[in-house]
Amino acid sequence: MxxxxxxxxxxxxxxxxxxxxxxxxxxxxxxxxxxTWIAIYQLRKAYKNFVFRPFKTKRTRFKVSVMIAVxxxxxxxxxxxxxxxxxxxxxxxKEKSSLSGREIVQTIRYYISKGIDTRGVLRFVRKRFTQDxxxxxxxxxxxxxxxxxxxxxxxxxxxxxVASKISFSEEELKVIIGxxxxxxxxxxxxxxxxxxxxxxxxxxxxxxxxxxxxFEEIKQAYRxxxxxxxxxxxVRMSKEEQEMAHERFTEINLAYEYLERRFN
Length: 264
What we know:
Elements: H1 3-12, H2 16-52, H3 58-73, H4 80-95, H5 101-114, H6 119-128, H7 131-145, H8 153-165, H9 170-190, H10 196-206, H11 215-229, H12 239-263
InterPro entries: DjlA_DnaK_co-chaperone, DnaJ_domain, J_dom_sf
Protein name: J domain-containing protein
Domain J: 202-264
């Protein structure tokens, strides 16, 4: 074989070093790809935890509810102090031992003075609150609106705006409002101010009590009635039965709240 033939024969076959370089290059590319994918995954996970995880905590859900409820308060500043007391007692019952009364009072005062824009908060409620949590929030807003037995146009507009923003059924909101309206209309017709004692007796009857009792007995009767008429027990019933149960459940809560104010 001539020298030229030998040269071409050698150059036609890849050297062992070339194969090693090619293999190393592929390995490096694979490592870069896998490392990049892991980094992106971890960054996305960290972002989700940073943005959304706080809204899964009980404390932050409480603050979100206060932000929204405070906007209802400032739409009618009549009886503002009494409404704040009502809100404090409501959250003490709801949060039980996780929050102190002092912390709840300070949070309510802070958001009243701060003037929070609730648009972003309502988006989080829509995405992160369960349907039961949304219902509890709407119930609280309606209770605050009807605290002085009448709702002004600004309060009513806010109720429907909140319901729309958090994807809460407008029909269900109308049912809740209708129950409160009937209750307070009945109260205004039947119970003059000088007949406060008959109002106490009427609310005791709602809880299944017919005589004057101490507040501990009222609490026991309230818990018994709530268990009996809780909406969760009627989810498989007809729509009419569900509405009747919801109305009865609402009357029980309103009766208890009235008696709580009178006895405490």
